[in-house]
Design a protein that fits this description.
It is found in: Cell membrane. Keywords: Cell membrane, Membrane, Phosphate transport, Transmembrane, Transmembrane helix, Transport. The chain is an all-alpha fold. It is about 75% helix and about 0% strand. The chain folds into two domains: about 1-30; about 65-240, MetI-like (MetI-like fold, Orthogonal Bundle), CATH 1.10.3720.10. Strands 1-2 form a two-stranded antiparallel ribbon.
C-alpha cells in the first residue's frame, strides 16, 4: 500500500490548524462565560468605566487597557527598529564573524527567564530612571517599556533573520547579475521582499509585549490610573490579573479578571486582522 506523503502532510497540517482554532475558540468561550455574569449582574457596563476604586464599588478597567496598549506599543516602537537594525547588520553590514556572534547572542537571550530581566532592572534601571526623569519612583511606564523592548527583541530579530536568510539565498544570483554588493542586495532586494516577515515579527513582538505579566508587575508601579506621562506608575491588564488572582477569589473585583482576559484576546485578534489586511493591501497594490 502506497502512502501519498503530500496527502498525509495536508491532513496533518489541516488537523493541527483545526485543533488550534478550536483551542482558541474554547479559551474565548471560557472567558466569555465567566465574564458574562459581570455584565448581567450588578456591575453592568461600569466595568468598562475609567475609575478603579474598589472601596467605593468602582471597578473600571479601561485605564489598565490603556496602560497595556501604551507599554506594548512603546516596547514595539523601541524594539522593532533595533531588531531590524541587528538583522541588517548580521546579514550584510557587519563582518560575518561579528554577525554570527550577534546571532548566537540573540538565540541565547531567548532562553533567559523574564524574571531575570525584571530582577536586574529593579537594581540597575529603576534607580537610573528615577534620577534621570527627576520625578516618580522609577517604577513607571518608561521603565516597563524599555525592559519589554529588550524582552521581545530576540523573538522579533530571529523571525526577521529567518526570512532574510531564505530570501537572500533566493535573490543572491539576481543581486550578482545586477552588480550589487552584499549591502546593496540586502537594501534593494531582500528587505522589500521580506515585508511579510517584518510584519510577522511586529505581530509576535506586540503579542509578547501586551501578554507579558512579570515585567509590568515588577516595574510599572501597579497604580490603576490613566497613563499620561512616561514617568507615571501604571497597571496593565496582565498585572491586574496576576494581582487579583493572587489575593482574591470572592469579591466583585474577581470578575474583572475575566473581562480583562477577553479584552486582551480581542486586542490580539484585532492586531492580527489589521496586519493581515495590510499584507493583502500590499499584495494587491
Amino acid at each position: 500500500m502506497r502512502f501519498d506523503r503530500n496527502r498525509i502532510a495536508d491532513v496533518t497540517f489541516g488537523a493541527s490548524a483545526l485543533v488550534t482554532g478550536l483551542a482558541v475558540a474554547a479559551i474565548f468561550g471560557f472567558l466569555f462565560l465567566f465574564a458574562l455574569p459581570v455584565f448581567t449582574g450588578g456591575q453592568g457596563l461600569s466595568i468598562l468605566s475609567g475609575v478603579w476604586n474598589p472601596g467605593r464599588g468602582q471597578f473600571g478597567i479601561l485605564p489598565m487597557l490603556a496602560a497595556s496598549l501604551c507599554v506594548a506599543l512603546s516596547a514595539l516602537a523601541l524594539g522593532w527598529p533595533l531588531a531590524l537594525g541587528l538583522c541588517c547588520g548580521i546579514r550584510g553590514f557587519l563582518p560575518r564573524p561579528v554577525g554570527r556572534l550577534l546571532l548566537m547572542l540573540l538565540r541565547g537571550m531567548t532562553a533567559f527567564p523574564t524574571v531575570v530581566y525584571g530582577f536586574a532592572a529593579i537594581f540597575l534601571l529603576v534607580p537610573i530612571m528615577r534620577e534621570g526623569l527627576g520625578r516618580g519612583s522609577g517604577l513607571s511606564w518608561a521603565t516597563a517599556g524599555l525592559v519589554l523592548s529588550l524582552v521581545i527583541l530576540p523573538t522579533m530579530a530571529l523571525v526577521m533573520d529567518a526570512g532574510m536568510r531564505q530570501t537572500e539565498r533566493r535573490l543572491r544570483l539576481t543581486g550578482a547579475a545586477l552588480g550589487f554588493t552584499r549591502e546593496q542586495t540586502l537594501t534593494h532586494l531582500v528587505l522589500p521582499a521580506c515585508r511579510k516577515n517584518l510584519l510577522a515579527a511586529a505581530a509576535l513582538g506586540f503579542g509578547r509585549a501586551i501578554g507579558d505579566t512579570l515585567i509590568p508587575l515588577m516595574l510599572a508601579g501597579n497604580a490603576p490610573q490613566w497613563p499620561s506621562a512616561a514617568w507615571d506608575s501604571i497597571r496593565t491588564l496582565t498585572a491586574h490579573i496576576g494581582l487579583v488572582l493572587a489575593t482574591d477569589s470572592n469579591s466583585a473585583a474577581y470578575g474583572s479578571v475575566f473581562v480583562a482576559g477577553c479584552l486582551l484576546l480581542l486586542v490580539n485578534v484585532t492586531v492580527q486582522l489589521c496586519l493581515r489586511s495590510l499584507l493583502r493591501t500590499g499584495e494587491t497594490a
